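Fold it.
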Amino acid sequence: MSSSKYKLLAYIGLGVMTLIVGLSFIFVKIGLESSNTWDLLAHRFSAAFVAIAVLKLSGVIKTQRKSLRDWMPILGVSLLYPILCFAFQTLGLEHSTASYAGIIYALIPVFTLIGGSIFLKEKTSGLQKVGIAISVLGLIYISLRNTSGEQGQSPWGGILLLLSVLSFVAYYMAGKKIMQRHSSLGLTSAMITFGFIIFNLIAIVRHASNGSLAIFFEPMGKISFVYSVLYLGVLSSVVSSFLSNYALKYISTANVSIFNNISPLISIVGGVVFLRETLYLAQIIGAILVLLGVIMVLGFKPKK
């Protein structure tokens, strides 16, 4: 197969991955209709763990031996992502809408740039700084208008989603060197395994403490919950990682990042179309400011 065909397949895979990630907030909301945050996360990572185990047994993922010295930093960054990131995300979606979550997650490039400038001493251009200010202004505008009475959702939802975004950015900052020392597939496998252990432990301890362990499995009797868990665990957690890794072999990271920033738009539109969520005027204005700032952050990089 020619290199152009490999590149075409990479772009197709990247498009599919963008759609999967963009719709993931919708499936979290569907899952939360039948379960609580901790049970949903436990079942989600159980599905992801089974998928990873099948891929390991089939030889798709090669098992690499790691020393205790290798494992400690991996466990450290895994606390940020997936543990804190997905915990804050799912808790936030209990008090918010999928479309609003899409707006908050659109800020990832902005906070990544801020973190890179502060902690990694990466240079930023003047227009990028303006873009950061515009995006933050958009977020502040939404937050000031986003009261329970006015827009039907708790301010805690936005705070928790913002903490999820910050956890992801912190993971990226802390894990940059670790990513260079280990294969991305190996890291994905380790992080999913860690998430599987932690979230199941939390869920089981919570149920065992109040004698409701049987309730842990009740949502599995609902087909909508099963679809949600399979989508989040297999497609969103495992398949999207493989598609992203494949794309990075043939497409520049700059182009991949552009595709990644389409996902929040899909979340916003998907929430309105599939969940019949209302997108208020304040959210539309704030979203425009956030996206305008993100475009400036991505488009006006400092000259080398």
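The chain is about 80% helix and 0% strand.
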